[in-house]
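User: Could you write out the 3D structure of this protein bound to magnesium ion? I've included everything you need below.
Assistant: Certainly. Input first, then the structure.
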Amino acid sequence: MKIKSLFFDLDETLYPFGNQVVYVLGERMNHFISEKLNISQNEVRGFRDHLYRTYGTTAKGLVVEYGVDLIDFLKYSHDIDTSGYISPMPELRKILDQIPLRKYIFTNADRFHATRVLKNLSIFDCFDGIIDVLDVFPDCKPSTKAFEKALWMTGTQSASECIFFDDYPQNVDAAHEMGFYAIQVGGRTSANFADSHIDRIEDMIHLELFKEFVL
Ligand SMILES: [Mg+2]
C-alpha cells in the first residue's frame, strides 16, 4: 500500500473525546432548533438523535426535512469562542510535522469552526486543506458520495492511497468499506470494521503503518 494522503475528522478526533466544546455546540443546535421549529427543550434532544441517525448530521436533516437555511444553522450553532475549551497540542504538532504526506481535514462541521479549532490547537498550518460540510453538501460523512467528493476535491486517485481518522464508528466503517485504511480514534462505541483503533490521535505515531512515513 502506497499511502499519499491523510484525512482527519476534526471534533473529538484531533482533540480528546468529551471536550466541553461539543456539549456547547450541541446546546446551541438545540436552541436554534427549538426556536426555529417550535420544539420544546425536552423533545429537541431526541429529535436531533433521529436526524443524526437518519441523515448523518443534524444539519442535513434540518435542510432536507424542514427546509432550514443551512448557513443560518451552521453560523448560529458554531458561533463559539472555542479558545476557552481547546488548547495547543504541541505533541500532536510535532508528530504531524514528522509525516511528509498530504494532510486534510474532512469534517461535518463548517470551515470557520474548523479553522478556529485548528488555530486553538496550534496546528492550522500543518494541513493542506479543509473539506467541510458545505463542500460536500447535500452529502456528508458517512455517505459514500461525501467521501468521493473529498477524494475528488483533493485530487486523490483512490481511497487505497489514504488513511482516514475519525471517532465516529459509522464514518470509520464507511471509510473502510470504500478502501481507506480506517483508524478509529477514541469514540463512544467501537466501529465494526476499523483497520486500527487508537485511544488518542498522538498514538498514530506508534502504529506499524507509520514507521515508513516518519521523517
Ligand atoms: Mg468527530
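The helical segments are 20-37, 41-55, 58-66, 70-77, 90-97, 111-120, 144-153, 169-178.
User: Perfect, thank you.
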